[in-house]
Specification:
The chain has 109 residues and is mainly beta. The chain is built from 1 helix and 6 strands; from the N terminus they run E-E-H-E-E-E-E. The longest helix is centred in the middle third of the chain and has 10 residues.
């Protein structure tokens, strides 16, 4: 197996890649956010999730204001190299800005 090269990932036209955040123990999907190359590098360096805010046009470390940090256990990428799955240890109650544990607390059916 060869060493992974960040340049292999396929970022979209805005330079972003979707990142699915999952609890590493329960496998619960906590949230979906977007990363660019710099926020992915920061995530790797800090060991905490760091994202690019599309609305605020700035970087944000999950938990910096809420205290609900996400400590990275593994970073995986899909077969098409255009999406990430980040397994984390969620500190605090909620990953969602609404206070819910997961952003996926509502159902269509």
């Amino acid at each position: 197996m060869s060493k992974f090269n960040l340049k292999e990932l396929k970022f979209d036209k805005q330079g972003l890649i979707p990142a699915i955040i999952q609890d590493y123990k329960t496998k619960e999907v906590l949230m979906l956010a977007y990363m660019n190359k710099e926020s992915l590098k920061k995530t790797i360096k800090l060991g905490k999730t760091c994202f690019w805010s599309r609305s605020r046009k700035e970087y944000w470390v999950k938990g910096a204001t809420s205290g609900c940090y996400q400590y990275v256990k593994a970073i995986c990428y899909d077969c098409d190299l255009d999406a990430l799955l980040i397994k984390v240890r969620q500190l605090g109650l909620g990953a969602c800005h609404t206070g819910n544990r997961s952003c996926f607390y509502r159902k269509i059916k």
